[in-house]
Predict the 3D structure of the following.
Amino acid sequence: MLDDKPFNKHNNNAATKPAYLSVWNIESFYGESYIVQDVSFNVHEGEILALLGRNGAGKTTTLRTLARMSNPELRHGEIWLDHKPLHKMASHEAAQNGIQLVPEDRRIISGLTVEENLQLAQIAPPLGWSLERIYDLFPRLKERRKQDGVTLSGGEQQMLAIARVWPATSKSCFWTSHTKALPLLSCRRLPRLWASSAIRALPRSSSNKTPSPP
């Protein structure tokens, strides 16, 4: 039975609690190109997992698979988040259930200001942080809030991409090359983000159990 004690980063959650995100033997393809080959791992409440590997090893493809993007195609395996089968969901359904992906190409919307990009990301649940909280973490975005988002520098666009997908109700957030092009000062602020309430997995009901693989 799970308890309701506050999250403690010093606890060995892996030894005492079931996995919050479970990935079982996933295989993903771009067309006929076999990219993600039999990948499995667990992430427990409060844990941060890094995927390391050379260029082209499939790190970004793995994250896109977990976020249930239409490309790559998941052909085998299962993905469970908080007892829910992500592998049966489309990307918008995964997002509604707490999955957020910071895309490598940022995907800032042309013709919208920085602030409008942030506001557009908050028109449907799960709602994001308040603008004040975002600007506290990234003061440069506040300075550029009336500027067209695509005219920002590379580092500033990366800040915007991170801020845009950081809802307070996010259960798992996947970042790909998230510190690339970020100014050093902003990189130093990221531990504040990781230590926030959003990075800690939400409490679960003690009546639920993580499903076992078939």
